[in-house]
Write a structure and sequence with these properties.
mainly beta; DNA-binding; 3 helices
DNA sequence: CGCTCGATATTCT
DNA sequence: GAATATCGAGCGA
């Protein structure tokens, strides 16, 4: 339908991560009829590269877990983090790279908030999908979603959304290597009183040193 | 609010 | 054996 096209994901991974801020992530649960639709605006992402990025799963080449990062772009890569939580990525890279993926870290819930609250066992909307493990729990995403095509899938897809007023960049959360890269991006607004940007409350609570990566003109 | 800590699978040393 | 793209409970201020 109106999914982002394959070519959208054929750019440098960090560029795709930045451009995914403000896009709409849609999850369709087919168990019931009519199917239950969950969706939200992507408010936080991180880029993970290949041999150029020591923090990436793909840095040391393919393994059973990360092989999807080396396959077609626009595909879902889910892995189990810390043995407890699933993390949802979309493969993306420029033509000169052999691997790469964007970690979707948080969404602002749009449709199906009550269903997400039930999956998450919380009634606080700011705790529904504000972190990679929380997001997959809210959207019922696990290893069975691996390999889905977000440009064509009927159950997990990415569409155009809204244009963020400000995008903030920072170093990535929970990594100790690759701290030189500012490959985390967060949906933000401009505070005209303080004359400063502020991050969306629907992003994860982790706050480091931010830089303004983009401002709407 | 902020900090520490346990759970727990895959990969790396 | 150690590290890891995390989260929530428990505790102290």
């Amino acid at each position: 339908v109106d999914c982002l096209s394959r070519s959208f994901y054929a750019q440098p991974t960090e560029e795709v991560a930045k451009k995914l801020i403000g896009k709409k992530l849609v999850r369709v649960l087919e168990k019931r009829s009519p199917p239950n639709i969950l969706s939200g605006i992507i408010v936080e992402t991180e880029a993970y590269g290949s041999t150029n990025d020591e923090a990436s799963h793909a840095y040391n080449g393919p393994t059973e877990r990360n092989s999807i990062m080396f396959g077609e772009i626009g595909r879902v890569y889910v892995y189990l983090s810390y043995g407890n939580h699933f993390c949802f990525n979309v493969t993306a890279r420029s033509i000169d790279r052999h691997a790469g993926a964007v970690l979707i870290r948080a969404i602002q819930p749009l449709e199906g908030l009550f269903t997400m609250m039930r999956f998450r066992k919380t009634v606080d909307p700011y705790l529904v999908a504000s972190g990679p493990g929380r997001l997959t729990q809210a959207l019922n995403i696990n290893l069975t979603s691996n390999g889905l095509d977000v440009t064509r899938s009927k159950i997990l897809l990415i569409k155009n959304g809204i244009s963020p007023p400000v995008i903030l960049g920072s170093s990535r959360v929970g990594v100790s290597r690759g701290m030189n890269k500012q490959w985390r991006y967060v949906f933000a607004y401009w505070d005209g009183i303080k004359n400063l940007p502020y991050a969306s409350r629907y992003a994860s609570k982790w706050r480091g040193t931010f830089a303004v990566a983009s401002i709407k003109t």
